[in-house]
Design brief:
Strand 14 (378-382) and strand 15 form a beta hairpin. The chain has 2 domains: 16-169 and 229-315, Bira Bifunctional Protein, Domain 2 (BirA Bifunctional Protein, domain 2), CATH 3.30.930.10; 326-414, 3-Layer(aba) Sandwich (Rossmann fold), CATH 3.40.50.800. The longest helix has 20 residues, at 16-35. With 416 residues, it is of the alpha+beta class. It is built from 14 helices and 16 strands. Helix 5 (139-155) packs parallel to helix 9 (231-246). Bound molecules: histidyl-adenosine monophosphate (HAM). Histidyl-adenosine monophosphate binds at residues 83-85, 114, 116, 121-123, 126, 128, 130, 132, 260-261, 281-286, 288, 304-308, 310-311.
């Protein structure tokens, strides 16, 4: 035997028992999001690198060191998607979605790729559920999206959730603030960590994320963007908060909330779970009013979020894990009954029953044991002349004409 092969570091297999849970999670997400008018979208697994370089921002960790980028064989650079917002804005521009009634509300459930150091809750291929609303800057869009994510996390029983919100203002306000912050960091450069000091020019906002003691002391005295919002941005933020409070969504305002992507304007938010350790963000997002235009489309406001499925699963107290119920198990004694048994399983499936047939040559006794183990409701034991139908819940048995088995089960089920 040659050496056993394993998946690459930071990736994993979704096994059938895990897939059942994911299907339940997806069904909940679909019900909540489609109920609010969001429609599913799927963009390709890889995009031209430019989409992320321009969209996510050249100074971000994602673009600087976490993208899987390669040549497509024809001299064009492509990248496995590290996130979903920039591709959706690219698709909005490419398909002229600004001509549709606005806002265009979309949701997705897809896998994403970031070359990060793997640990619990952080993988190199991971899955996100996301929602994006493009074409309206109404604060009700931001609030609706946040309420939907809060509802989703609550229905999925994600424990000990905390929501932080902030506002970054417009891109202009952010740029002006960035310069003030850089000046503050330069004035205190000797107290900062090496890492933060080396990124003063490139990404000063990330200094708020540092856990280095000296840096934290400097950041405690740093100017805050939230204190310097212009009137329209401050009113927008106040309106979002008002709607959240009315919807009963508790939140804290965090003026230092920094998200790892450059496209945000105005509202930003993040949901954390106290049930997770280091990687405690279950979902986050915000408004990105300049992104569609940055990717070649018309000036279009937008807002959205994404939540990590692995982290939801880690933080959830009670997701259902039930496999599909088996209505009928078709058992048979010997090879001469196989054809009739096969036809019966096929007929049952066409009548929309979940039906399985013996496929491993077990003895009749073994087949009944197996049917019991997989929770089959009925077992049909196919013989030459007749078929015995056994109700596994009551233990009752009926002798049924082979042609009448499916009808009999349907009738029995209807009576219960
Ligand atoms: P993000 O904060 O980078 O935002 O990712 C959203 C969520 O994806 C995180 O809160 C986390 O749960 C999960 N996640 C991120 N990286 C990993 C990883 N390596 N392993 C496991 N889970 C991970 C975005 O991606 C934005 N596109 C969100 C957005 C949508 N903003 C506006 N619209």
């Amino acid at each position: 035997m040659s050496e056993k092969l394993q998946v690459p570091r930071g990736t994993y297999d979704v096994l059938p028992q895990d897939a059942d849970t994911r299907v339940a999670l997806e069904a909940t997400a679909r019900r909540i999001l489609e109920g609010a008018g969001y429609r599913r979208i799927e963009t390709p697994t890889f995009e031209r690198t430019e989409v992320f370089a321009r969209g996510v921002g050249a100074s971000t960790d994602i673009v600087q060191k976490e993208m899987y980028t390669f040549d497509d064989g024809g001299g064009r650079s492509v990248t496995l998607r590290p996130e979903g917002t920039a591709p959706i804005c690219r698709a909005y521009a490419e398909h002229g979605m600004h001509k549709l009634p606005q806002p265009v509300k979309l949701w997705y459930l897809s896998s994403f790729f970031r070359s990060e150091k793997p640990q619990q809750g952080r993988y190199r291929q991971f899955w996100q559920i996301g929602a994006e609303a493009l074409g309206s800057d109404d604060p009700a869009v931001d609030a609706e999206l946040i309420v939907l994510l809060a509802t989703l996390l609550s229905e999925l029983e994600v424990g000990r959730v905390r929501l932080r919100v902030g506002s970054l203002g417009t891109l202009d306000a952010r740029h002006a603030y960035r310069e003030r912050l850089q000046a503050h960091l330069r004035d205190n450069a000797d107290r900062l960590s090496e890492d933060v000091r080396s990124r003063i020019e490139l990404n000063p906002l990330r200094a708020f994320d540092s856990d280095h003691a000296g840096t934290r002391a400097v950041m405690a005295e740093a100017p805050l963007l939230l204190d310097q919002l212009d009137r329209a941005d401050a009113e927008h933020f106040a309106a979002v908060r008002e709607l959240l409070l009315r919807a009963g969504v508790e939140h804290e305002v965090d003026p230092t909330l920094v998200r790892g992507l450059d496209y945000y304007t105005r509202t930003v938010f993040e949901f954390e779970s106290g049930k997770l350790s280091a990687q405690n963000a279950v979902g986050g997002g915000g408004r990105y009013d300049g992104l569609v235009e940055m990717l070649g489309g018309p000036a279009t406001p937008g807002c959205g979020w994404a939540a990590g499925i692995e982290r939801i699963l880690l933080a959830s107290d009670g997701l259902p894990v039930a496999p599909a119920p088996v209505d009928l198990y078709v058992a048979f004694g010997g090879a001469q009954q196989r054809r009739a048994a096969f036809a019966l399983a096929d007929e049952a499936r066409r009548a929309r029953m979940n039906a399985q047939i013996e496929l491993a040559g077990r003895s009749l006794k073994g087949q009944l044991k197996h049917a019991d183990r997989i929770g089959a409701r009925y077992v049909a034991i196919v013989d030459d002349e007749t078929t015995v139908l056994k109700d596994m819940q009551t233990g009752e048995q009926f002798e049924v004409d082979a042609a009448g088995v499916v009808a009999r089960i349907l009738r029995e089920r209807g009576m219960r």
